[in-house]
Amino acid sequence: MNGLLERVSKIERSVLASIAIVLAIILFLAVNVFSALTFGSARSDLTQAKLFTLTQSTTNVLRDLDEAVTLRLFQSTALLESAPGLNVYSDRVNELLRTYQELSRGRVRFEIIDPIPFSPAEDRALQFQLRSFNLTQAGEQGYFGLVGTNSVDDVQVISFLDPVREQFLEYDLTRMVANLARPAKPVIGVIDGIGAMGQEQNQTPAYAVIRQMQASYDVRPLKYNANVIPPNADVLMVIHPAGLTPRTRYAIEQYAMLGGPVIVFVDPFAEASPTDPQNRLNYLFPTSELSDLFERWGIQMATNKVAADRSMALRVSGFGGPTRVVVDYVPWLQVRPENMNTEDAVTAQLKIMRITSGGAIQETGIDGVRVTPLIQTSRDSMLIDVTTIRRRDDPSRLLETFEPSGVRQNLAVRITGRARTAFSDGPPKQNEDQDAQQNPNAPKPPEPPQINEGNINVIVVADVDMLTDPHVVNQAGQPVSSNGDFVVNAVENLAGGGALIGLRGRGLSHRPFTTVERIEDNARSKYFATEQRLEAELAQTQGQLAQMQALNRDEVAFELLSQDEQRRIIEFNQKMLTLRQQLRDVRAALNADIDALETRLQFANIALVPILVVAFGMVAASWRRAKLRRGRASAGGKTA
Fold first, then answer.
1. pTM
2. CATH number of the domain at 56-180, out of 3.40.30.10, 2.30.30.30, 3.30.70.920, 3.30.499.10?
3. Per-residue pLDDT tens for 22-43?
4. For residue 617, what are the contacts with CB-CB under 8 A and spacing of at least 6?
5. How far apart are CA 223 and CA 228, in angstroms?
6. For residue 348, what are the CA distances in angstroms to 171, 292, 356, 518?
């Protein structure tokens, strides 16, 4: 009987085990299907800048869509198979586009098209001018581009989804959707006094920052000395207003007081200004300002002073006399997030900016006008005469004579509130343009009534050079700073948008080691005086030794010199060796903290992880042995 019961029990256990295995398989498949449907696009982004996480800006754009947008991804299967790296990137593009479709609740329609060679799909790819790649020697082409359309047949094209721009993928896609979602691009009128818009006759292209704006806006150049600002301009941009006529300044003021948003770039020393071909040190129009308007807007900027900062200085290579030196150049500044207004949408998301020989904007205090800093120096700053910068003196001399003011200087500000006109005597005389000269009898347009008081919305930046290409992109066209993002953010914010502000500045080809830079800054401030003193003593000693050797004829041997001359030469040589050793010690001390940081990082990368794994294993083994001991003790107690 007992044997029969045991056999029945074994059968029941085997049946139960089989059922359990089947249920486990079913549960495993169910969990996987549920996860794929529910968490298919879920991922953990461990990058510091959260480059692979959709921003709130993208979510807002997708949820606020009022009309359907169709995104067609032309991807050749043969091209992806021949380029494994591109195949991996295409998976992310597909995943992101599906996420856009889900977040937009179907407003974004996503299609995948395989443009097989010599097919109608390839004809469409050619029609949209997508970039093609040879697949075979027979001339068959492959494509990997994106075409977006809306209900009124507007078209936006990314001719090739380049993996090099992967960190900007979300920005490119959201910009495409945002541009298709609005009926017309905002108009940006530009008064250009530096050549930022380019020159067709000289085949000079527009600045990279202007080209970046043209992707989202209708950027139109205005006459430099215009009588009026076109009322259809959504934003007015004034770049380096050097020598503007009173009538043009009046037109800028009237546009601003009618509620037109304005962004102004002025500079006490625009290093991008053209120079005299006969004398490269003679700048043709280096200074720009709008002092009469600034006075009414509650600010002022000295045109003979440049803002310098020791802790923000860029390191440059130059000549101190005949010797090449590497030194911090205090008028050229690297602006970090702590120097920007993180509460303003224009600067909140930016990383690194570059300002060179910029001015200092000071608030004068006007009732009803509010001045909000956007970019500032640190308190380790001072104002330097423009003439000192223009002479291109030894850059180390600027550090030696540097005396911090303890005041944060404003490099860019936002001005809002109610301002009064700077032209209380009435409108200035209109400029005589070519049309008036050619048609002197043509009737003049009626003078619009003067606005004496109005609400303004203005951003003023005290640097023009920050717009130039070396400050914005590298030779490959990749961003090296957030300068371009700052300008586009400002324009979009002034135009009443802001949809893409949270997306800009999320990826730069230039990612500085900020911790290392801070260590270097602290070390240089600590040892700079000692290093300068030792270098001066070394140069003096070398000069004295050279003078003594020059006084003695070459044919006279050292042994034939007088004892006093021999002693002095020996002393100079010993002193020179001592100074060189001290200088080496100081320069080694400069890098001591960086070397210590490198050692700690190497330890963390090489040894720390294995140590943590071993420690975790030892703790787990100890816990398991303790648990077994407790189990045996409990079992022994029950047996007893």
1. 0.64
2. 3.40.30.10
3. 777 887 777 766 665 555 545 5
4. none
5. 9
6. 16, 31, 21, 21
